Amino acid sequence: MDARDTEIKKELNATLHARRELGDEYESALVDSFLEKVDQRIDGAVERRVRRQLAEQQMVVARGSRSPKPTDSWGERFGFGIVSLVLAIPLSGIGGGVAHLPGLLVAWAGIVGVNVVQAARTHPDLFRRRRKSQKDSDWED
Fold first, then answer.
1. Cα Rg of the chain, angstroms
2. Residue 25 carries which DSSP code?
3. Distances in Å between the alpha carbon of 97 and those of 83, 100, 131?
4. What long-range pairs does 60-69 form, CB within 8 A, spacing at least 24?
């Protein structure tokens, strides 16, 4: 439990104690006051998060590069691969059953195409050619 949680707990205890002392006629005012304090705390936390994310985006733009962390996780890529393979089974059956070998080839060309586009989206440098520098040259002096 961090300091913010203990502050909220203290506020709640104070509100409950005040309700016991003041009675039922002040209950709605006390609850409204407590909820307003909780609302302010939530608004402050959201505002800090938004400011931090904006600052991170501005740093990325200022550097002129992509965000250092990938936009999708390993689980998302793994899930995409599994779904692709699961859908490959009925697509292969339909393509092979309707148009035989050409249909099967078209179905698999589509499956491979979708996976290539996904790979290019998640790893933009994957399909770019690397230029050889002088040090990487095949020619020895």
1. 30
2. G
3. 22, 6, 45
4. 66/124
Assessment of whether the complete model's pTM goes beyond 0.70: no
**1 Cβ neighbours under 8 A, 6+ residues apart:** 9
Please provide residue 93's backbone torsions phi and psi, each rounded to the nearest 5 degrees. -65, -45
The H or E element containing residue 124 is none
| Tens-level pLDDT at each residue, the chain (141 residues) | 566 678 888 888 988 888 888 888 888 888 888 888 888 888 888 999 999 999 988 888 888 755 545 556 778 888 888 899 899 999 999 989 999 999 999 999 999 999 888 888 877 777 777 655 555 555 554
Residue found under tokens 């939530």: 42
Q: Could you give the CA distance from residue 108 to residue 111 in angstroms, rounded to a whole number?
A: 5
Q: Which ranges constitute the DSSP H helices of the chain?
A: 3-22, 27-63, 74-122
The two tokens of residue 103 are 């249909």
Helix (H, G, I), strand (E, B) or coil at 120: helix
CA distance 57 to 45: 19
Instruction: Name the amino acid, one letter, at 49.
Output: R
